[in-house]
Each structure stands twice: as C-alpha cells, then as structure tokens.
Amino acid sequence: MVALSILDLVRVTEETNARGALDNARDLAGHAEQWGYRRFWVAEHHNMPGIASAATSVVIAHIAAGSRHIRVGAGGIMLPNHAPLVIAEQFGTLAQLFPGRIDLGLGRAPGTDQITVRALRRPPGSVDQFPQDVLELQAYFAPRQPGQRIEAVPAAGTEVPLWILGSSTYGAQLAAALGLPYAFASHFAPEHLLPALDIYRRNFQPSAQLQRPYAMVGVNIIAAPTDGEARRLATTQQMSFTNLLRGTYGLGQPPIDDIETYWTPTEKMQAMRMLARTIIGSPETIKAEMDALVAETNVDELMVVSDVYHHALRLRSFEMIAAVNAASGRSSNSAAQ
Q1: pLDDT at 330
Q2: Are residues 186 and 277 in contact, defined by beta-carbon separation less than 8 angstroms?
Q3: Does the bond joining 125 to the residue before it have cis omega, within 30 degrees of 0?
Q4: Which residues are CB-contacts of 265 (< 8 A; sequence separation ≥ 6)?
Q5: Is the separation of the CB atoms in 102 and 71 below 8 Å?
Q6: What are the tens digits of pLDDT across the range 81-128?
Q7: Nearest of 262, 281, 293, 292 to residue 320 by alpha carbon
Q8: How confident is the model at residue 220 (pLDDT cuts 50, 70, 90)?
Q9: What's the rounded Cα separation, in Å, for the pair 198 and 192?
Q10: Domain 3-328 grouped into CATH 3.40.50.300
C-alpha cells in the first residue's frame, strides 16, 4: 500500500471552539496511528477564526503528547514569517520531547493576508531569502561545529528532517536542488501537480538527508458509506473554499443538501478548479480514484485532507480511507522519515 498521512486543518466550527478543535486533532492522531497513517501534520495559518493551528509548534506538542508513534509535524511552517533561529529552537525542543517523531515542512507563502503579514513584523522582502533561510535552518539542526557562535539550543544534533512544500514549480526546483523530500499541495492548487513532480524527479540531487527523490501529494478525500452521503459531507469544504473566494474567513459550516444554492456559477467554477483533484464517495469509488491518482503520479505518499464537519464522521472517513488503501496492496518504492 502507498504510505498515507494526514493534514489536519484543526477546524473550528460553528459547534466547536478552539479548544475543541485542538482536542479533536489530538484524538484523530491517536486513531490515525492505529489505522496505519505514517504522519500527522498541521499548518500555519494566521487571522483565520476557523483554523486553530496558528501557534503551530505548540499545537504539534499537544498532538504528539496524545499519540505514541505517529510522526507529527508542520505542513507547514511559513518560513518567511519567522527567523530561522526561532523555528530551530521550537522544533529542536519538539525533537527533544518526541525523539524520532517530528517533521518540519517549509513553505514560502505567508499563510495569511498582507495586513497580517505586517502584523507579524517580518520584512516584505523576506520571501526572497527563502532558500538561504532553509539552509540556515538546516545548519542549526546539524551537530554543533567548532567555533560556531550561534547555536539553536536545544536543536543542534537533532537533525529534524526538512520537507519543501509547494503549489507551483518553484518548490519542486528548490527541493530537487537541496536533495529534500517534496510535498505538493494539490488539495488546493492542483494545476501544476504533474509538471512539478517531473521537475523535482528530473533535477533531484542526492543529499545527506535523502538519496532518492521522495514525493508526497496532498489530496482531499471524503469517504462515506454511499456516494450520495459523501457528496453531502463535501459541501462543508466547498462552502469553505467559496468563503475564501469571498474574502470571508469564518467558522466551519455543517453540510447542506444543495450546494448550488450557496455559490454562484462563477464561484463554483473557481472553487472547483482548486478542488479538481478531490476524491469523494463510497469505499468503492474512492478506491478507483485513489488507484488512478497513484498510477498517474507514481507518488510515494498521499497526505489526506478530509474536511468533514462532524468529528465522528471525520474519524469514519479517515478510517475508511485507510481500509481502502490497505486492501489495495499498493507499496511505495522509496522511503523518507
């Protein structure tokens, strides 16, 4: 079977406050490791009332403490928002608390709007320093060198594995040049998926962390006993994407019977373009579409987003997805931590 992982939105809903969202994420991780998921990531988003993972390293600690062996990490930290030294200190601390279980995915987008970027106090041009910041961060996780004047305590020697995240070909080029694993965000930006994977694999340079290219693809999968129920559950995510297009960042909304009453034709076209790779349906339906995606991309790992409103039904969705994958007999040809 292909490796499966989870990207959790730590979704605050109309019925669940931030504490409930954090506890739901922790509960999901505990179940996920029993179902065979490899890793559990959360992402840095700011000024979004419906997402409770802004303090990403703190959220990771909460989730890791509620599970035993699943890898927990950031998918990702938006590095231009931070000094690399601070991120190294945070994730080095996590690595000391949960040895062998911490991942650090890195993105160059701000993860928020421009007003919030200014509130984060980072220079607007910091995004241009992303490759250098990645190298600086990598050095902080390496063993301390003689004469080294700045040490990220307690990160030195933890060698937290880094990932490059991307929704365009830029991240693919950087991940290939640095010899790092690559995760493509086709769960919201599927357009460049295949070109990005091709660029990454063709240009990959082996590194101390990784000898062969290792690619992960983000994918929305919503599973239910029937196609009809799954399509209804998917309206929660469709409304969320519509709200993003409208510039409204509200709480997660319960599913509705007819999504056509919620969005305009233009909004539908734009939202469905972003959701083009989404897989929705019964176990039989998702099996066929997961098989097709893996065959098309030859991906090493799928990182699943299952944005289902009610926690119990979200657990059911992830359990069904894991069962379908286990029954498929697929196997990954390469390995990453």
Answers
A1: 54
A2: yes
A3: no
A4: none
A5: yes
A6: 999 999 999 999 999 999 999 999 999 986 677 788 778 877 767 778
A7: 281
A8: very high
A9: 10
A10: no
CA 237 to chain centre: 16
Q: Mention every residue, 6+ apart, whose C-beta is less than 8 A from residue 115.
A: 47
Please work out, in degrees rounded to the nearest 5, the angle formed at the alpha carbon of residue 97 by the alpha carbons of 92 and 100.
Answer: 75
Alpha carbon of 173 to those of 179, 191, 208, 213, 254: distances in Å? Answer: 10, 16, 18, 12, 39
DSSP characters over 268-325: HHHHHHHTTT-EEESHHHHHHHHHHHHHHH--SEEEEE---SSHHHHHHHHHHHHHHH
193 and 314 in contact (C-beta within 8 Å)?
no
- Tell me which of 253 and 116 has the higher pLDDT: 253
pLDDT for res 120: 81
Supply 267's token pair.
Answer: 């909004």
330, 299 contact by CB (below 8 A): no
Write the pLDDT tens digit of every residue in 286-318: 999 999 999 999 999 999 999 999 999 999 999
Is the torsion defined by CA of 150, 153, 156, 161 positive or negative? negative
**Distance from C-alpha of 152 to C-alpha of 85, rounded to nearest angstrom:** 6
**Amino acid at the residue 10:** V
Helix (H, G, I), strand (E, B) or coil at 105: strand
What's the pLDDT at 111? Answer: 60
Task: Write down the pTM of the prediction.
Answer: 0.95
Confidence (pLDDT) at 1: 74
Residue 181: cis peptide before it, omega within 30 degrees of 0: no
Q: Whole-angstrom Cα distance, residue 122 to residue 287? A: 44
Q: Measured in Å, how far apart are the chain's first and last C-alpha atoms?
A: 17
**Which residues have C-beta within 8 Å of that of residue 184, sequence separation ≥ 6?**
165, 166, 167, 171, 172, 192, 193, 196, 197, 215, 216, 217, 218
